[in-house]
Each structure stands twice: as C-alpha cells, then as structure tokens.
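FAQ: What does the model actually see?

It sees only this:
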Amino acid sequence: MAEDYFSHLKPNEQYILRDKGTEEAFTGEYNDHFEPGLFICRACKNPLYESNTKFNSGCGWPSFDDELEGAIIRNEDLSGGRKRTEICCARCNGHLGHVFKGEQITKKDTRHCVNSLSIKFVPYNHLETATFGAGCFWHIENVFRNKKGVYLVSSGYMGGDTLNPTYKEVCSGKTNHAEVVNISFNPAESSYIELLEVFFENHNPTTLNQQGLDFGTQYRSVIFYHSDLQKKNAQKTIKEIKANFLNPIVTQIKQKDKFYRAEEYHQNYLNKNNLISCRI
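And it is asked to produce this:
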C-alpha cells in the first residue's frame, strides 16, 4: 500500500500538493523570505532547496535557480492550453509549481516557481551573521561570496531612517542608510576576525563617506555588530591595523539595525553582468 503523505495536511495545503492547485500571487509566507536555511517538502519533509539559491523574480511566488540533487521530478503540463514543465517532490510526488528557462534573471537562467504552501523553511542554527558597509555593495558582495565558510551574502541597506528604502532613495543621500552586505557564515570555517580582515583589505577605511570616485553617506565605512563580542573584535582589529594607514581610520562601529535587502538586480551584480569589479 502506498504511503499517505497528504492526509495530515491542512485543506489549503492539500489543494496545492495533492490536487495541483496554485496559491494567489504575493500571498505566500516565503515570497519575501531570505534567511539562511533549507526548504523542505511540506508533505514528506524531503529537502528540496538551499536558501542561497532563492531570489526575487517579482512573480509573486518563491523563486529558486537550483535544486538539491535528486529532489525534484519534472512532468509535462498541458493544462490551461499552455505547455509548461511541472515540478514535483521526488519522494511524495507532491506538486510544487513549475520551472522556467530563458528569462535571464540569474546566472543559471532557471526559475523554479514554487508555492509557499508546498514547502517549509528550516533555519540553519550553526551560522552567524556579519554586516559591513564598504562603499559600493557590488564589489564587497563579490569578495565575500568567494570567501570560505560564507553561505549567503545579500546586498542591501542599513543604518538609516527610511522604511523599505529603494536604491534611488538611498543614492539621494536623504535616507542615512549605508550600502551594506549581510553575510551568513559558518564560524567553524571562517571566524568573524577573518571576515574583518577581508573587509579592511578590500576598501579604504580612511576616507569619510567616500570610496574612490563614489561620494555620499551611503558609501561610508561601517561595521554593524550583531553581538558584544563582534563589537569588541571590531574595536580590537582597528587598534591593531591603524598603524598600517597614513590617515586615521574613520570606520563606524554601530549596533545592527534592520536590514533591507536591495532590489534583485543588485544581488550578485558583478557575476550576473560578467564584470571583474566595479569602479572604486
């Protein structure tokens, strides 16, 4: 007798997973969710997606550009007079959504369009968070993406007064937000002090509100600490390296504030646009 994966689900979950329904766009709990962790099948708990493959496609449903190996099966879907590729959980055959190619939103050029009611998020508890502002976030994000022990890097804004700021608003200089990168890292592989070293090696911490030809408070050098230990390590590192610079270090050390993830086109910008670096 086949195992029953769906009877324990709520009616709206059964409608999606068993009956191949679709939730309304922009209503799912995971549409704007970008925390580090794992997305599993809501019906059978089969691991499906790493959260570092998730992106904001603007379609109104959670989007991923890759899957865990062997987690997904694909079926031809001719419903509604269209030819699409349905994606289902490989363990329970529960309906997840559809997969699309050729939209060129991410480097992998793939979008798994998934119903929030088909999946469940399991956070990673072994990771810590670091937040740095070092001028243009395109450059520093790319640097940290290639650092050992880093699981997820997101470009965004922090430290200002405006709620849900846009890039245009931040560039106006009126929001007081800084361009930052929010980093989820494994301290067993790379320590916070090692991340601080990368931070200081990849920008000029002695120029106030400026990096190269970029001027403005949004380009300020700043460390947003997430714990007292991070604060102490930041202060200690600055004391240890200040002799390496001709001018005083002006890097701010501030308690972390709400992080606002930047617009999707800013995420992994250099890689998506085949650029080695941005101008600094």
